[in-house]
Structures are given as C-alpha cells and as structure tokens.
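Hi P.,

Sorry for the delay on this. The queue was packed all week, but I finally got your sequence through. Input first:
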Amino acid sequence: MQAAVRDRYGSPDVVRVEEVPTPTPTGDQVLVRIHAASVNRVDLDNLYPRWAILRLILGIRRPRTRALGVDAAGVIEAVGPDVTRFRVGDRVFTDLYEHGQGAFAEFVCARERAFLPIPDTVSFEDAATLPHSAVLAIQGLRAGRTRMVGAGDRVLVLGASGNVGPFAVQLAKQAGAEVTGTCRTEKLEFVRALGVDHVIDYTTTDALVIGGPYDWILDVDGNVALSAARRALRPGGYYGTLGGSGGRILKALVLGPFLSLRSGGRRVGLVLGWRPFGPDDVATLTAMVAAGTLKPAIDRRYPLSQTADALRWLDDGRSRGKVLVIPPPPYRHGQPTRLRRVVRDNA
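Then the structure:
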C-alpha cells in the first residue's frame, strides 16, 4: 500500500509517500481502507514538536513511528478473529492520536476501540473532518461537567478560520451565543460566511481591546497573554487555550490558576480534560452534521501522493477550514479489491 512516512523531524519537506506492507489485523484489530483523511495542527506538532517534552513520547532524537495522520474515515476491509463490534463493509472513522497515527495512507490497522461508526447520512469527507478538530472545539466550549457556552453569552474565538475555529464558531452560535471571530485580512469573508456576529482582523485590531468584554474566550493556538485575556473577560468569564508554544502552554498551565485568584470569578488557563474522540461528543457532532446544523468547512483536497503539500498548506497558515488527503480509489489493475475476514489459523 501507499503511505506517507518520515524518518526524522522537520518541515513537511521530510515527508514522502512510499510503498509499505499492508498490515494484517490480528486479535481485536480492524483493517480500514481509507476514503478520506484530514490534516490537523497535531500532525505538524508530530513533524517538528513545538513542545520539547513531546520528544519524550514521540522519540528524542528521531520519531519512533514513521506514520503520519490522525483523522481518517473509510470502510472496514478485514477484521481480526476477536473483533465483536464491527464487520467487513462497515463505515467507520477514527482519531488515531492514541493509536499510532497512520491516517495518511491507503489502509490503517488499529484496535476496534479506536473506531466509531459513521452515520449513513454523513459522507466520508465530512466524517474525516470531525474526530480531532471538532472534538477539540466542542470540549473547548465546555469547562468542567456543568459549565458551557449558552444562550446570551458573548463568545470570542481567537483563530476562527483554521481547523478548530470554524467548528467552534458554529457550535457557539447553535448554543445561542453572540460570537466574534478573529482571522487575518484575506480570510474575513470566509469567517463571516460561518455565521459570526462580528469578525475582527487580528493583523490590524486587538480583539481583546475592541469588542469586549466577553463571557467566554477560546484561544485556538495560544496567541495572547493571559493577563490581557483576563482583562477582556466579564466577571465570571472564562478564557481557555488549546495550544501554542511550549512556553505559552506552561504559562497557561502554571500561571493560569494564580491569575484566576481574586479576579471576580474570571478563570484563565489551559483547556484541561481533553478526551480524544469521546463517544458522547462524537455522537453530538455527527448528529448535527447529519441534521445540517453543523457544516464542516473543507478548504481543499490533496491526493495522497501530495501529502507534504497538504501539510505545508496548513503550516503556512493559508487554510480556510479543513484540508483533506484523499487516497486513490480501491482498484488494482482494473479490478476492485476483495473484502475479506481474517480468522484464526485453526478456525
């Protein structure tokens, strides 16, 4: 099979597509033929970790895994003998963040618990946009188990035009909030089309000074100072960041609780409690997509052979919504690939 791989850390230039063995599922694993995969900021972080501590997990001198990509949607082509939840031909999608990556390929093989079914009314492309970015968005608009964005809240989404932002904007609007989104100049019309009430060009205007105060600020990539964010909040308001450089992550994690003290109930810091591909959140998101109340914004599609270009497009900050990687269709020498079930040798 064809798969995007890398052998060292670096820019998207280190990524290449080559022929690798097609895995055979064993135990409770399933083999999925990928119909669509999507690119996320986390894929870039795995290419060249912004946080040095990540190398303790990914590999200190070089990456432990050559595979790339976390979000994929496709059809189960083979199953291991211990699989109970799925069968050949089922439509599934996944966030492979905790399962070894490998979405940028023709096939991926992982334990069945890594996958969830795709509703019949949701396309492979739409499903592929949801597992990482949309889950981050819905969880970023929730603090703890009881507090979440609601009707009448004034919400600011810092970074409304990339992977997470378009989902966050739509989810906040569905909750009845008044939403302001920020982006660079050339993306203003795109963000307006998402349904925001106000859009601010961050290259010319500071949204923390103009347009506030806010009940909720979601900072997609940790680009503002915690003290400035706190000043832009109403009493009882909440600021959460989903990412950023290693230094900003550390400040949000360590300084956030201290800055939140004696601040009129204002809370600032890192969005904690992330649950990758949480089934309840995924069910909510897919139901909204099926109903047409949440519409994934797909910027462009790249063939698998151009995975490096897809990563580069996102890395350069040019994407308006999601970027997809599309493997070639499941044909070899003019004939469709056969579906099969993997069973025990002594079965």
